[in-house]
Amino acid sequence: MELGIKKHVEDIYKCTRCGYCREMVRERDNTFRICPIHEGTAGFEVYTGKGKMLLMRGVLEGTLEMTPRLAEIFFTCTTCGSCKAHCPVQIDTVGIFEIFRKDLTARELSPAAHTMFGKHTTEKKNPYNEPHDQRTSWIPEDFEFSKPAEIAYFVGCTSSYRQKELAIATFKILKKLGVDFTILGPDEWCCGSPLFRTGQIKQATELAQHNIDKLTELGVKQILFSCAGCYRTFASDYPKIEKLKAKSMTFAKFISKKIKDGSLKLKNLPVTLTYHDACHMTRSVKKPDYKTPRKVLNAIPGVELVEMVSTLEGSMCCGAGGGVKSAFPEVAVSAAQNRVQQAKETGAVCLISTCPFCKRNLSDGNKEANLGMKVMDLTELILERIE
Ligand code: SF4
Ligand code: SF4
Predict the structure, then answer these.
(1) What is the distance between the alpha carbons of residues 101 and 111, in angstroms, rounded to a whole number?
(2) Whose Cα sits closest to atom 1 in ligand 1?
(3) Mean predicted confidence (pLDDT) in 130-138
(4) Is 51 part of a structural domain of the chain?
């Protein structure tokens, strides 16, 4: 079986081994820590972008075997893209890691947890092994699913089954604003993100095609996301399968437009908060959006937004993505503790994110380290403040 990474030999050998993707402090772009895994483990270089580039060379040159241990290293990566963003020779590190993950998966070297959620997602359309008929159990009132509409809210699995408060907040905000929108409901399947990120591309493509077909049937022109992972998948992975007519939009962007046109008024309540950039809304998409969530936060009366030391382009991942939370939960929580510690050091009382998976892991890190931060999603904050 030919290795997919063979097509990327040039990029793999382009790595100068500078180590910028391992550790770098560059105050001008708020870079203090690069790799959440390097920070959240004993710090061995193999876990960094540089380490993995060198390991792939070894595999290509035949000096390194593809073993379960090697696979473990490649799957202990949140695919956050921070190494890529800081690489001076602009290697698409994370893109190549994902191709190598596919190579590893094809050789049955995936972590058991990934194989398991792949199976669950194929069978039950969600990675959490929850019954599909419970996907809409969060809905707070009677609602006609899958009705034709120009705007669709794609809920995603984490908000449907784990962080239901995000789905509820998004739903209520849309209702309060009088938006005519649709939700696929039982017709919504996992967006495929966990599978795309862990090399299970065939199954992910089937899920994606289903969602594309359903949204197209309803004549949807704009899809709203309160999950950064779903957003990235629609924006970056789906176009490789089929170009969707509908445009993808983060809920933060939608809120920002509503604030701008005057249809969304927010109450004053003084609070100091800090904001965590979700990697899937920023580094992982063609047009990273750092500004909009901050614009929304700054537009809320009484809010004082303070930035963490690692912020904007230098932001540090929460530690959950890329299948790390399911296969290596201690590593994920350890990375989250580092991130919440940064939030705590700002003096803010509240840490805001725009992704249910970030919220979940940051909350776990907050609890584990007993840091006492209030961790909230932007949708919850908006619902709390809406007039
Ligand atoms: S993608 Fe993120 S977690 Fe993975 S090696 Fe790069 S910086 Fe580390
Ligand atoms: S920053 Fe780029 S060139 Fe430098 S070690 Fe990392 S991958 Fe290689």
Answers:
(1) 11
(2) 79
(3) 98
(4) yes
